[in-house]
Amino acid sequence: MKHQVIQKHEDAVQDNKNFDVVIVGGGPTGLMVACELKIAGINAVVLERRTGVVEQYRALTLHTRSIEILAMRGILDRFVSHSITLSKVEYAFLETWLDVSKLDSGTPYTLAIPQNKTESLLQEYAEELGVKILYGYEVVSLHENEQSVLLEARDVNGDSHDLQASYVVGADGARSIVREHTGIAFSGWDENFTAMQADVYLQEHQRSETPITTINENGFYVCIPVSNGSYRIVLLDSARQHISGRTPVTLEEFIESIYRITGTKYEFESVIWLTRYGNATRVADSYRVGRILLAGDAAHIHLPAGGQGLNVGLQDAFNLAWKLAAAVRSDSADWLLTNYSEERQPVGKTFTKNTLAQSKLLSDFSSAGLALRDVVSQLIAHPEVNLSLAEQIGATGVAYPPIQENGSEQLFVGRRCPNFTLRDTNHKKHTLYEMMHNSHFVLILSPDHQSLADKLQRFAHRVNITAARIERSEFANMNAMLIRPDGHIAWTDSSNEKRNLEEKTLAMLQVWCQLENSVAAES
Known about the structure:
By secondary structure, the chain is an alpha+beta fold. It has 3 domains: 4-55 and 115-190 and 281-358, FAD/NAD(P)-binding domain, CATH 3.50.50.60; 194-278, Alpha-Beta Plaits; 404-522, 3-Layer(aba) Sandwich (Glutaredoxin), CATH 3.40.30. Strands 1, 2, 8, 9, 10, 11, 19 and 20 form an 8-stranded mixed β-sheet that branches. The protein has a 6-stranded mixed β-sheet with strand order 23-22-25-24-26-27. The chain has a 5-stranded antiparallel β-sheet with strand order 14-15-16-13-17, with helices on one face. Helix 3 (28-39) runs parallel beside helix 6 (115-129), helix 3 packs parallel to helix 9 (309-329) and helix 9 packs antiparallel against helix 10 (334-363).
């Protein structure tokens, strides 16, 4: 029986084979790209080889920056209602945890939520927006020319379908066929150890409301309560950590390893999922070749330490989608797609270094390795170190380099904007993120530039414009601030040359918002 979403959108292939964008992969990354493109009015379709939303829990965490992303689009509440709010996150399961409540954010916490629920909620959101999702469609080939990309996909019945798109986004995971087509090098390191993982229901006498961790010369074990009374167990057995990640795990092997590490014999009520994975770490040398772009696990793989993979994928998608929408609208926006790779590929390299460091802390069970864990745990207890690592895991510390022609104060450009409060000229208060639900740029002018704000409303189809005071001390003296749809600062002005503010603002709108024709005609 076909999945209901296939039934609803199968005409997308039968009646219309030409799209602005084809997104290969319907996990959280692909769905986020699709939702953002739909909000921007772009004709896109998602092809997912699975016949529905992922069934396993998989990733368990939404970190602070991902939470901010959801808040920017006004959909955070639906995720909060299905999750547990946490103020601390683990780092290599050291004794000292990271305190995310100290992050400079309006949402300084993480959400404990299984990936299948996250994906299900994103799929529901996509359906509300009218996104075309085709489950059971596997891409088998793609060919790029100067004007488009041609794809062949096979459905669950084995029938072949030809599609054409101006651009293709590969969000199809670690073994991405899209990445393979591009020939982009996937640089990094092969796995040198593996771990085992299971989602299970425990016998009543073995249940705990808090995580239980054991580490010794025999390996590492952690048991965490997850959802609906189930538990996530992760273990590294020093005697089995060199077994290939492709080798299936047997239940007998798993239970035996737990006993070897903890001395406790387990008999599970039932097992939901059992898997083995390694610490292979790779990052694509570029996230863009021609009309093809990579995001999520197609662009980077790593040990799932700190629950960062799903989150970085969502953040890739949020950076990419508005730039891709601009490129669809205008050839002059092509530079934004290169900019996507220039901004996100270094982020991929940075966070995979973080996971590599954690993999060392997690896998060395020698006396020296265990001593290293103790020393690092003590270091993380220092507030400055703790905050720095929390900013890395939560991705609130990500800042992008300014473009050369920006002409703006370098102090703020590229930084992410927290959800500050604005007070307009009528003394009404609202927040920045409330202005971002439609995925537009946001232009904030100081209250004494109300007339300019009124004049620039002709660009309201692409930019949300307000004259308001920013109630945050570091931005108190700003004449103007332009904020990108992904919540990073594109341009600021705090000079005293008020006569030139309109000219400078129009120039930045032309650079970032692709409003050349409107600006040229009306400036």
